[in-house]
Amino acid sequence: MDKLALKIFEELEKDPENVGPYEDLMSLVLEGDHELNKELRPAIVRGMKLKKADAPRLFELYKTSLLFDAPYDFDAYMLYLEIKREPKEKFYLPRRKILKSAADAVQDLVEDKLDELFLSMPPRVGKTAFLVFLYSWLIGKFPEKSNLYSAYSDAITSAFYRGVLEIVNDDVTYTWRDVFPVARVVATNAAEETISINRKKRYPSLTARSLYGTLNGACDCDGFLTSDDLIGGIEEAVNPDRLLSTWQKVENNLLTRKKEKTKLLWVGTRWSVADPAGRRIDLLENSAEFKTRRWRSINLPALDGNDESNFDYEYGVGFSTETFRQIRASLERSGDMASWEALYMCQPVERQGTLFRPDEMQFFNGELPSIQPDRRYMAVDPAFGGGDYVSAPVCYQYDEDRFIVDAVFSNAEKETTQLLVADAIIKNQVEAVQFECTKTTKEYMDGVAKILKGKGYSCSLTYKPAPNTTAKETRIFQNAGEIRSMYFLEDGARDKMYSMFMQNVYSFKLIGKNKHDDAPDSLSMLVEMFQKRRTITAMKRIF
User: Fold this and answer.
1) The dihedral of CA 191, 197, 202, 207: what is its sign?
2) What is the CATH number of domain 353-534?
3) Distance between CA atoms of 176 and 170, rounded to whole angstroms?
4) Which tens digits make up the pLDDT trace of 461-484?
5) Class of domain 87-305
C-alpha cells in the first residue's frame, strides 16, 4: 500500500462515518489496484453498519469494489453476481462461511498454483450449485477455452447446463453481463448440452456430458475438467466391480479429453476409498510419476470438531446440528456407520473393512447395576492438540461386565484436555488411571496430577510406553473381541464427546490407513488394565 493510501486510511480510522475517504480510496483502486481493493472492501462493509454513515453511498462503493474484482476473483464474482437478489434468495452469501475455502482453492487453480483440487462435502449442501457459479465465471473469463463438466447421469448434467444458461441469460436476477460486458452467448444446444461464447468453435466454451454418455469427440478440454458425483449410489459403492468399471471409464473416456494444462476438479460426496477421487488421490500420493502434480484436498464434513453443523446456513437453507445428529443416530442404529463416515464426514472407508460395527456392539441406556462397581478406572491416550485427539474412556467394572460410562475425546489444546480428563476422573470417582506416554509426553500426566492435587482428589496414576502405529493396530485387532463385549452408552444417552468417541471407534479399518485410531486404542488399554487385574488371584500362604 502506497503512502497516499495509508494516509487516507488513517483519516478513515479517525472518522469511519465520513464517506469521503472511502471515495478517495476507491479512486485509487480504479487506477488498477486490486490489492488495495481487498483492503478497502471490508472497511466499506464495516462502515455500512455504522448508524450515522451514508449507507446508500457506501453500498454503491461496495458494488463498485465487487465489480472491479469480479472478473479476476471468484469470491468477489459470486458476491456481485447476486447483488440484486434478496438476501434470503441468494445462494452464495448465506453459505459463504463454509464455501469460501472452496472458492479460494478454485482461485489457486485458476492462478496456476494447483493442478488438481478435490472437494468433498455431504449431500444437498450446494456442491453442484457452486459448480454452476464457477462455470458461468470461467466461460465469461476465458471464452476461448473449452471446459468439460461430467457427472454420473444425464439428469445432473442437464440441470447443470440449464443452471449455467440461466445465469448468463437472466439479467433481472444476475449481473453476469455487468462482469463480462463484451462476452455474449452465440450458440447453445440443449441436446448436446453445450454453450459457446463470442464465437462458434469446434469445441464449445462449455460441454456438459454424463460419464456414461458419448465423450469421445465431444470436447477437447483445455480449461477446467470437473467430475461431480461420479458414483450413482450405494448399490454402486458396495460393488467392487462397479467401482472398477467407473474408474476405467474415468481413465479411458473422461481423462483422455484433457490437454496438458487442463485443471482437474474432483467434486462429490465420497462413497468409498475406491471411488474415482480415492483412486486418483492414491496415484498422487503413492506413484512416483505423479510427484510433480500440485494438488490439494478439501473435506468439509457435516459436523465440525465440536460436533456442530458446518452447514447451518442463514435463512434455513442448510442443515442444523440436530438434523445431522439425527441422521447419524439413524445410520448407527441400522449398523451403517460406514455411510455416515463416507457421505457426511468425508472419510470414506471400505464397508466390509471396519472392525467395529454397531450391530455387533453392546449398549446400555445409562442405568447401571444397583450395587457398587468392583472397580472404576480410566485409560488415557494423550495428545498435545494440533489436530490429534485425547481419548480417555471411563470404565465401571461389575464382576466380568464392563460399562463405558463416560469418555473424554477432544483435540483442544493440552491445558484444556488435561482439565477435561481431571474433571472426568473426579466426576466418576475413578480409582486408577493409566496414561500411555513417551518420555516427551509424560508431562501430560504430570499436568493432570497437578490439577487433581489442587482439587484435593487422590487416585492411582500410572503410565506405560506408547507403542508404534503397527503395534497399536495389532493390539486393537487382538483386543477387538473384548472391546465388543463392553457395554457402551446408547445414542440417546451420550453427550457430544461420547458421540465423537464412538464415531472414531466405528471408523477404524481392518485394511488401509487409519487417520485417527485414538478411541479404539484407548479401549485396548482398558482391556489390558482389565486383563492384568483379572490375572491376580488369591492363594493360600506357603509359610
Assistant:
1) negative
2) 3.30.420.240
3) 8
4) 998 887 776 677 888 888 888 999
5) alpha beta
